[in-house]
Amino acid sequence: MAGVLGVWAARRHPGRWVAPAAYVLALIVFAAWAGEYLADVILGIWSVKYDLPLQLTDAVSVVSVLALWTLARGSPQPRLVELVYFWGLTASLQAVLTPDLGQNFPSVFYFTYFGYHIGAIVAALVLVFGLRLYPARGAVWRVYAITLAWTALAGAGDLITGGNYMYLRDKPVHSSLLNVMGRWPWYIAETVVLGLVLLLVAAAIAGGVRRLDERARRVAARPVA
Question: Can you give the pTM of this predicted structure?
Answer without folding.
Answer: 0.93
